[in-house]
Amino acid sequence: MKPYLEKHFQRDFTKWYKKEAENLVWPSLAYVLKRTTGGTVAFSKFEDQQLPALQACCTQNGLHHELTDASLGINPFDGFLLRYADAYVGIVFYANDKAKREFWFIEIDDVMALKTVQKSITLKNCQKLGFELKL
Fold first, then answer.
1. For residue 128, is it within any domain?
2. Residue 126: domain span
3. Which of 20, 34, 73, 131 is the most exposed place for a label (fewest CB within 10 A)?
4. Which residues share a beta bridge with 86?
């Protein structure tokens, strides 16, 4: 069995989102996706800017991001500003020897609260604070 990578999680989440778009409550959404073959995702696995950027999306000042013309393909627009958006960390818990995958989303405020008291996000944290997606 081939490994299930973050790019596969992104693909599956995008398919799910497109299918469920009219039923979703999120007007705007920012997210970071992570995968683990164990029961935890260490905070050290996040890029330095990722969690603060997710936090910024939830605020009045928001997060402005300019898309560069140097990127591959055609950009849909030049940039965006996310203010008062919902922001989540999405985690897929995946065992290499099993086909079963669990997909969890946890709000950025809960993630940041966990970061103050532990070194990683566990499956139990997600079960307590997040919600499971059926991708």
1. yes
2. 29-65+78-133
3. 73
4. 29
Segments of the chain scoring below 70 in pLDDT: 1, 71, 96-99
Per the domain annotation, does 17 fall within a domain? no
| 59 belongs to a structural domain | yes
What type of residue sits at position 25?
V
User: How many domains is the chain built from?
Assistant: 1
Within 8 A by CB and 6+ apart from 62, the residues are 56, 81, 82, 83, 84, 85
Q: Helices 108-115 and 50-57 meet at what angle, rounded to 10? A: 140
Helix (H, G, I), strand (E, B) or coil at 10: helix
Contact status, residue 119 vs residue 43, Cβ threshold 8 Å: yes
pLDDT, tens digit (0-9, with 9 covering 90-100), for 101-129: 899 999 999 999 999 999 999 999 999 99
Tokens in use for 5? 């990578």
Half-sphere CA count of 14, side-chain side, radius 13 A? 6
**Whole-angstrom distance, CA of residue 19 vs CA of residue 2:** 25
Phi/psi zone of residue 62: left (φ > 0), alpha (ψ -120 to 50 degrees), beta?
A: left
